[in-house]
Amino acid sequence: MKNQRGFSLLELMIVVGMLAVLLTIAVPSYRGFKARALQKEGFALLSAYYMAAHNAKTDFGLFPGNFVQTGFQPVGLLGYRLQVGDNPNNVNMIINDDVCVSTQALCDCATSGGPPCPGFKTWQESPVGVLGTSLGPFDATLPCPVLAPAAGPNTVTDGTFQAVVSGVISTRSGKADRQTMNHLKQIAICEDGTL
Question: Is residue 82 within 8 Å of residue 46, measured between CB atoms?
Fold first, then answer.
């Protein structure tokens, strides 16, 4: 007859302790990896705006700034908000709509004196961070550097633009992840929300 002895209590406690150590190492690493993967959405949103802005410059000879004239229309749930500065110099544009410069706000050309622009109304947001937090407010203290002369979230010229994205992508820190890009495709991380 074979020996059918089971595990001792000490052996089970050692296995449970080893599993606990592995989990304390693996869970934070997984959360950081997930946040860094979500951060790619911010870069993708900036890149999509960059392409649309350069296409509009080819058509109009300047960067319009607002989403409607730029032709920028993100789809799906947004994990980031994007904000740009409307171009105050675009007097030759059909619509100078300073309402359509942020995915945070209602984008309706008809309310600002322009013709209707169906489809450019609102964007749905999917906040990832702690429940009840926003996707990251835009305010005067936004620590995003100006990447080009005479360009910023609120001051743009015919030949420049700067776009800023913000999103809460980690439940660990709960702070916003902020990135900015200019017309030269220079990117800066203003605040790293993955930490």
Answer: yes
CB neighbourhood size of 3 (10 A): 4
- CA 134 vs CA 80, 102, 108, 129, 175: distances in Å: 10, 14, 22, 8, 10
Whether the CA torsion 187, 192, 194, 195 is positive or negative: it is positive
- Taking only the tens place, the pLDDT of each residue in 72-107 is 888 878 888 888 877 766 655 655 566 788 887 777
Which residue, chain included where needed, has tokens 């633009």? 161
Q: Are 38 and 128 in contact (CB under 8 A)?
A: yes
Task: For residues 191 and 195, give the distance between their C-alpha atoms in angstroms, rounded to a whole number.
Answer: 9
When computed from its CA atoms, the radius of gyration of the chain, rounded to whole angstroms, is 23
**Integer Cα distance of 13 and 65 in angstroms:** 63
Query: What DSSP character marks residue 79?
Result: S
State phi, psi for 26 to the nearest 5 degrees: -75, -40
- Asked whether 105 and 66 are in contact (CB, 8 A), the reply is no
Say how far apart CA 39 and CA 169 lie, in whole Å. Answer: 7
pTM of the model as a whole: 0.73
Fill in the amino acid letter for 105.
A
